[in-house]
Backbone:
């Protein structure tokens, strides 16, 4: 599993396993990376001007 870094552009993936809080396909910028107590990595992703959401690795894919 590749981790993402601050400044990476990511796209929200479509998945049947969860219901994303943002529409799939939307692109955002990672502004903060945090590891949880259960060793899961959380990403604070900025969409548009001021919309920021906390997402997990499985919900994102790197935009090339």
Residues:
């Amino acid at each position: 599993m590749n981790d993402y870094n601050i400044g990476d552009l990511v796209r929200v993936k479509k998945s049947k396993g969860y219901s994303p809080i943002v529409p799939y396909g939307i692109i955002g910028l990672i502004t903060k990376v945090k590891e949880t107590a259960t060793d899961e990595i959380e990403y604070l992703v900025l969409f548009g001007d001021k919309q920021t959401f906390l997402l997990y690795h499985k919900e994102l894919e790197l935009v090339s």
Observations:
- The two ends are 17 Å apart (CA to CA).
